[in-house]
Amino acid sequence: MNAPAAPSFLTVPRLSQIPWLIHGFGTRLWALKDFRNRSPWKDFKVVWLKQTHSEEVHFIAAAPRRRLLGDALATGEPEILLVVKTADCLPVFLIDEGARVVAAVHAGWRGTRGRILERVVQELRDRRGSTPRSLLAALGPCVGASCYEVGEDVRRAYQEAGLDGDLFRSIAGAAAEPKYLLDLKEANRRQLIGRGLRPKNIFDVALCTHCDERLLSFRRDRDRTARLYNFIGMTR
């Protein structure tokens, strides 16, 4: 999956075929002010969360007056642009074409452990009657399976949550404390499939934030980095 004509954000071809859908996974060239500079989106309300690395999901019918705490947003209303910010964590979009409902999810290792995507799928079912087989999912850029080093605490937390042990690959020759490489994207893909999404309806922007200089990475740049703005919404 590659960038469209505008190089400031990445799109998924299958989602671009939906005439009423707006979406993009931001690169380092895309800033918050850019949402307001695009005339086709001038009437959209931009909504983003105070992200807390949680499993909290908000289904909104209108732009809230204050920033909500949580890590997933969903709506069935047009002209609301849902935004999640990332800098190594995984951004995920969910779309039900028939029900005309969308969601944007921030899935870090904690949210993934808490099965945030499973919660969003259930929320779409409860609120709009979406069935998993009707959903499309897009997995954006995140830190890749060869770059995401974690400790024993993370591996143990996933084990206690019942997540697959083969998501972790032991790093040979690590120091006294065991170190592992975690496949964050695969962990979330499995959750979607486990909830009933069809594999052919899960699309992947296969880029690593740590490796690709067009993207931003907290692990690579630490406190010098900003955040990537990932967005999805519906026109009228």
Textual characterization of the structure:
- The protein is α+β, with helices and mostly antiparallel strands.
- It has 2 domains: 9-148 and 185-234, CNF1/YfiH-like putative cysteine hydrolases (4-Layer Sandwich); 149-182, no CATH class.
- It contains 7 helices and 14 strands.
- Strands 4-5-8-7-9-13 form a 6-stranded mixed sheet. The protein has a 5-stranded mixed sheet with strand order 1-2-14-6-3, with no helix packed on it.
- Strand 11 (168-170) and strand 12 form a beta hairpin.
- The longest helix is centred in the middle third of the chain and has 13 residues, at 116-128.
- The radius of gyration is 17 Å and the shape is globular.
- The protein starts with 8 loop residues before the first strand and ends with a strand.
- The model is unreliable at 2-6 (pLDDT under 50).
Kindly summarize this structure in a few lines.
With 236 residues, the protein is an alpha+beta fold. It has seven helices and 14 strands.
